[in-house]
Amino acid sequence: MDTHINQPRPELEPLPERMQGLPIDDRGYPVPWFVAWVDGKPEFRAMDGAKFRAAIRERRCWVCGQRRGVYVCFVVGPMCGINRISSEPPSHAECARWSARNCPFLSNPHMVRREDEVLDNANLQENSAGVALTRNPGVSLLWHTRTFDVIPDGRGKTLILMGDPEEIEFWCKGRLATRAEIDESIRTGLPALQAVAALEKGGLEALQEQKALFERYLP
Length: 219
Fold this sequence. Notes:
The chain has helices at 49-57, 78-83, 93-102, 104-107, 117-122, 179-197, 203-215, and strands at 35-38, 41-47, 72-76, 85-86, 140-145, 148-152, 158-162, 165-172, 175-176. With 219 residues, it is an alpha+beta fold. The chain has one domain. Strands 3-5-8-9 form a four-stranded antiparallel beta sheet. It has a three-stranded antiparallel beta sheet with strand order 4-7-6. It has a two-stranded antiparallel sheet with strand order 1-2. It starts with 34 loop residues before the first strand and ends with a helix.
């Protein structure tokens, strides 16, 4: 792990207290606890599988790594709000909100994931469970809840079924998202979810019911 001490980028908001102990990379971004390290450098596109297990078993925040309380927050895209499935464990609300407002991928709708030989060679893509939607949804959904269940993905890995929300927030470009931005994220993301649902008998009907339920939470 790179132990070089860097300073946070000046445009970033002050780190929540629990995140202040995280390492800072060469660009000035804090490295979330879950991030995998490759050759002494953080690989932001990949999670550490051991951290996933520790987050569930030891009730650790996915972002800062410290212990969670009763209320937790998932940082997901609107499609995950429809099917209530997350591939990542939850965080503290303040850690999740800082990430949604400041993380380049989460706060910038035009940022895209870069997949290359680094991930392939390290086999880090295999950490992901379920069927990953690698697009940038453009809008981050913060799903606050007190409950969640760990479920198998049918391929030997683990997914998380999020419980009923106590509160939800939509963020885009470092601010609360507009209804138009939320609707556009849903419109552009739904076809991929429908393609997966169509593979199962009654899947499309069930998806439509899930979508209708999710729409009750929209601002």
